TrEMBL record:
Residue ranges annotated for the Cupin type-2 domain, each copy included: 38-107
Domain of life: Bacteria
Biased composition regions of type Basic and acidic residues, renumbered to the chain: 129-138
Annotated segments matching region Disordered: 115-138
Name recorded for this polypeptide: Cupin type-2 domain-containing protein
Pfam families cross-referenced by the UniProt entry: Cupin_2
Matching SUPFAM superfamilies: RmlC-like cupins
Cited CDD domains: cupin_Bh2720-like
Organism classification: Bacteria, Bacillati, Actinomycetota, Actinomycetes, Micromonosporales
Length: 138
């Protein structure tokens, strides 16, 4: 049985790894059908309104406070909350607190390049627009 792109099991103490991440977005693991990504949204920042047409997304919040804006509805999010975003649903996550909003997210199938590290939202947007953040082809 092959696990992920390395053929080996990956193990993360995910809350600790996410808390120590200084980058806006960092891909931790990419498998054939899903991808694990950690994110740190600075105070006053946001992921940015988007729609993933063919990708489901599950976000789990590690620290900070914010708003989940999914499919026209808004809910507050904080440590321990999980939000599922079905493919084709408009969504955004906004940091409404004074500290970073830290989370990890699972995309199915993968949404980003296997080794993507985006230090800021601006860098992430530029790379996506330039076609340099494409998920691996199956």
């Amino acid at each position: 049985m092959e696990l992920g792109n390395t053929g080996l099991m990956e193990h993360f103490t995910i809350a600790t790894v996410a808390e120590q991440n200084p980058d806006f977005r960092r891909v931790l693991w990419t498998g054939k059908h899903s991808q694990l990504v950690i994110m740190t949204i600075p105070a006053g920042g946001e992921i940015g309104e988007e729609v993933h047409d063919d990708v489901d997304q599950i976000l789990t919040f590690v620290s900070g406070v914010g708003e989940a804006r999914v499919g026209g509805r808004t809910r507050k999010v904080a440590q321990g909350d999980l939000v599922a975003v079905p493919a084709g649903t408009k969504h955004n996550f906004v940091n409404t607190g004074p500290n970073p909003l830290v989370l990890y997210t699972v995309y199915g199938p993968p949404e980003h390049a296997t080794d993507a590290v985006h230090r800021t939202k601006e860098e992430a947007d530029e790379l996506e627009e330039a076609g340099k953040d494409e998920p691996p082809s199956s």
